[in-house]
Specification:
Elements (H helix, E strand, L loop, with lengths): L25 H23 L7 H4 L5 H17 L3 H5 L2 E5 L8 H12 L1 H4 L8 H6 L1 E5 L1
Antiparallel strand pairs: 1-2
Helix pairs in contact: 1-3, 3-5
Length: 142
Amino acid sequence: MTDAVNTYPGERLGMPRTGTGSIARPGRRIGALLIDYLAATIIATGFLGYDQFALPSEAGLTMFAPMAVFAVLQILFIPTAGGSPGHRILGMRLVCLDGGWVGLWRPIVRTLLLVIVIPAVVFDADQRGLHDKATGLVLIRA
């Protein structure tokens, strides 16, 4: 019995090689992450201010404000818009492997794992990070 080698990311998931419905590639993913974090930083700075000369001990919780805003954006936009603002701007969306609605728990768990960073940079042959595998999601081109 021979093991079939996947010739492209997403093949074993039944995804097309390219175009709509194909696995989103790392360049788009990184671009979306940068867009989302930049937006979160601008929002957090606009509402909480920014003191470039404050030491971390003086900054308090405002130091974590961009990450908190980033998490809120992810949790709100994934179930309502099919992806974060960065995902949607760069032509991607998150879908369940079973074809259902992403629901509410998946964006929360996915975001918590994404904030930890390590699950997002460890991925499989289908270019799905551990944060997506754990939640049964796949990021595809829209």
